[in-house]
Batch of 3 targets.
Target 1
Amino acid sequence: MVMQNASESTPGTASEALQAAATATTTAAAKTAASSQSAAQRGAESAQNDAIKVLNDLQEISFWQIGFVVVGAWLIITLSRRLLPLLAERGPSQFRLYILNTVPIIRLLTLTIAILWVFPIIFNVTLENFLIIAGGASVAIGFAFKDYVSSLIAGIIAVFERPYRPGDWVKIDGDYGEVVSIGMRSLSLVTASDDLITVPHVKIWDQNISNSNDGERTLMCVSNFYLASQQDHAQVRSLLRDVAMTSGYLQYQKPVVVIVTNEPWGTRYQVKAYPFDLRDQFVFISDVTVRGKAALQQHGFEEVVTPAVENQK
């Protein structure tokens, strides 16, 4: 009788054990799922908070590193603006323009590297923050500093397209002079009258820029002579060409041309030649003009004093 009762109680006990094990497994799975969901939610919230945080905490910002970058960039730009022009003036003349042309390139590269270095130190760099900063900055800058930003963009384009370079002689908006420096916003010209003129880069958008030498060591100079029509033009032309060929400032590897044109008041002679160094252009024109007038007077050729008819319409 006892053995029969034991055998009858065994199936019930096994069933209860299986049911308890299933319940425990289900509970553990539910806890695991809830824990995973909670961790995922916390991660999403943390990522969202990191994205919303535009600036890093003050404790995370290395101010000494920012100061080091700013001072280093300032020193590099200042030394390049002062030492390279001195080196260009005292070095071989054939390398002068090449050395001067490196000044704006060094400044642009230095500023770019400094900004890229400092930006992640101050700001929490994420795609969301970048879009927020770029959008806000573009709107603010666009309204407040439209002309200034336009000049900055034009200055960056000028570095690559090179419509003018340090050492070039250019004419912009009626001003003719040598480009002595190129900044991020403007360039500086020194005219023949020793006037310093500041021209914003924005001029390249709507102004014609005449570059006389375009990076070369020399440029064409023109000396004008005005004579009466009843002359031996072939002899005058040969005489003026000889005057230019015997100038001590002439670049002999370049051609010398004398252009003859008829005008209502007489005949115009234009002596076109190249000086050895573009900085001698005005001395070269003066030399050809003075010696040319003396040669014409010596050979008895009559000059027209004032071609007044030329300006009458």
Target 2
Amino acid sequence: MVGVTRDARSDHRPRILAHYLAAAVAARLADEGARVCLVLLALRQTGSAGVGGAMIAALLVPHVVAAPLVGVVIDRARHPRWPLAAMVVIFATSLLLVGLLLGQAPLGLVFAILLVGGCCGPAITGGLTSQLPGLVGANRSPRAFGLDSFFYNVASMAGPAIAAVTAAAVNPVAAQCLLACSAVLGAVGIATLPIAAHQTQSGKARPSLLSGAREIMHQPRLRIVTITSTLGQIGPGALPVVAAVLATSVAKPASSGLLLATIAAGSLVGSLLWTWHPIAAHRAPLVTTVSMIGIGTPIAAAAATPSLAAAAVLFGVSGIFIGPFGSALFTARNQYATEANRTQVFTIGAGLKVTASAVGAALIGLVTTMPANALLLLVATSPILAGTLGTVLLTRHPTARNSRHVHEPRPASLPRSSQIGGFLDFWRSNCGFAGVRLSLPAAARRVTSNNSGSMNVPR
């Protein structure tokens, strides 16, 4: 019976993936849209944008605190879909209550409701993504992560747009209610996903609240990508503020939306490139760190151009690297986390990134009187430095280089040129850099080819 079940699931994997993506997008539309809608709601109901900013903080700050708890609840659950769906329903309820109560109830109560909803945020981000390998199979995971990253970017664009249009056409309360309904639809989709039940294993300790954090700190590659991706998010988290300052500095404040749209469009292209040609999973950590350098470098270059159009093009180039960065980060977490703690690793990583982004926005707010080009350099600094640090650690640190992948055996070490070559292979194959020659020893090429063949999905 087990074999029949697995064959049936294999036959329906494309449909299951589409089901997952629809549910995830519905939930994430609410998550992303709330960050705009709360400000509009506060302006209408209280007349204060500061209240809106505080409400957004109340929704985002709990991510990093609640992430381990959310992860352990899902990892311990016999049927993970139920706690996942329940947390999304709680998130939806918090949005609905805030929409109805703001201006009618004490602000303290409104903030408390948002804090509860924010504690469920990690389920919508890392909690959902961590379920993909079980739904599509290990060999299909890299491509599925690319699609997840692609549609996450779609939600990040469409959610705020839906909130703003609905608020303008009707009112912010209606927009908040619409986002809550979207989250409920996502919860229904999650509850009906065929997520496999966790098997109870006698003699093995259940995951604890700190199991995921310990695994991240003890597994060298997980530690490197988690720490560097968190540090690298501080600058990009401030980019919406800096884009507004840059557009205002050239007397075109409305163009800030264009700058952010080009980044989003670039990230969609990057996600599609990864989905079309995902690389071997054991190279994902290096793609993650080098992509951070690619995210920051065009933004730094934009500081040197006086043209807003040129800056927009460079923002788009930066966005192209965001796609493989997210997909490779998901793949690295999946590749090096044990199954028992996988959801915790995903939720902790996602919570740290959300918090780093919020910290970056808050810090840049203290120095917005600086010239726009100086702010762009500040934004670019964190991904460039974090990506460089991570790349050096992955290619030079013997523990990180020789750490074994927990799901399948692989050689203890490869020449450093083959590790760098893995990243260049991805960009050469996707972007047509046919002139790039990689100096790989013949033996290393054979090993690389064999390993990548076991993970890449046929095109």
Target 3
Amino acid sequence: MKKLLTLLVAVILFTSLPYLTNAQTQSPGAKDDPAMQDKGAERDGPDPGGPGGGGAPIGGGLFILLGLGAAYGSKKVYSLVKE
């Protein structure tokens, strides 16, 4: 029973923690910044409404992670069949 209660508390904590924390910053062209109001559309930095990561490619890293996951899974299956 104690193990179930610990698991339940951990699941509730990890699912509610992202909603309780607020770690978002303002964009580089924030409207409240008086220095940016003078420049108008000539502000530096990425578009605040653009994609996250600035369009960085994720294909190579994604395939590496998928390959490692497949290798790990096949090792686990091989170990289970070997027993």
